[in-house]
Amino acid sequence: MIRIRRRDTAAVAALGSMVLVLFWLFGELGLLETVVAIATIAALSTFYYLTISTTLNPLPKNRSARDRGDVDPDESLRAKIMLENLPIPVLLIGAGGRIEIANPAARDFLGLGAVTGHLSAVLRQPQVLEAVSAALRGQAVDPVEYSMMAPVESHVRAFVAPLASRDEPALPWRAMLVLSDETSIKRADRMRADFLANASHELRTPLASLAGFIETLRGHAKDDPEARDRFLAIMFDQTERMQRLINDLLSLSRVEMDEHVPPSGLADVSGIIDDVVDVLRPQLAEKSITLDIVPAAASSVAAVGDRDQLLEVVMNLVENAIKYSDAGAGIALEVTTDLSRDQAERPGLILGEGASRLTLAAPAYEAGDRFVAIRVRDSGKGIERRNLPRLSERFYRVDGQKSGPREGTGLGLAIVKHIVNRHRGGFTVESLPGSGSVFSVFLPISKRQIKASETSIG
Fold first, then answer.
1. Of 25, 26, 196, 237, whose CB has the highest number of CB atoms within 10 Å?
2. CATH superfamily of 2-183
């Protein structure tokens, strides 16, 4: 009986995978959706295949597995090893919605501790809980989709299947719950739509200008050297702006694609600042701006994050400070380490009485977390309080804050915010009209570094 059911399970899984491949070949499904669907079928089939011996046909008490000849005595161990190594979250739910088994992927996904409890305590999604309850009554249920917007946006598809059990007559059913993270698929679809909409909207004006200048140069201005040089210079500026716009849109799309997956590496903040200074030295010299760097207390500060993305954050903030500061002015870059969340987010009014502060992104905080703060202060005109909430919106530019021929694309601070969100950090702005602005980013410090510093102090 077990062998027959296992054979049928493998056949159904293979047939379902072939159907999905056919849908992909005929263009009904995208490649990414097809791969995710096949992986989900494989996970469900594997789990059912490995648990069928205990749920459908348990061994008689007076016979060993080896005596039966059709069950390997080490099979349960192999099933456990395979379940633990599955990258897809899988849970077995028992009586009353209690979690009986959860593989490591499920524990990480739901934030489960060493002791499992009720599913409703860790997954507050009514549709999923209703589907699990129906499965515990032996009913077949359809997949359920749910979304979460905090702490970061995520989209999940839940597959629930009832499992029969003969060793508990009072409760003959359990439920298997498989969670498939489809955030990347949803983000990819939205990214394509947003990119086309944003690019078509923002590129319309410079393209129209280029077309007009080309038409003029082909007409009455073709024999006027002075007009030709002036128009060509304007056309070059417009072309550069379109190039910066496309690069920023691509960068923003890449950041949004992975925003739900926090980085796990370490980045040396001091090294990042040195690289930013080297890259922006020509821009500083062009406007005769001095950059005052206040070093961290420690020679090397390791923040949890992606080095390239954090380099882009600091680069954007310092480049904005250069753009919006007058020639010959001074800007400051300060790094402060080992801060609590309150110390990093609310350090006191840096610009003095009358300044306004706003949190553009708040960090996900756990007890004991410490942060490194990177603050960039410019010498610009400052920003009025009413404009602060919109600073991280795409393409938003403050009136009167134009920066000349190298005017920005309005995407820099949006990129900063999304990168900070991915790093589970914070982003604040403080400004005082007439005195400039201070943009602050604070990032979690490596737990190992915190322990090392506590050990050295002790």
1. 237
2. PAS domain (3.30.450.20)
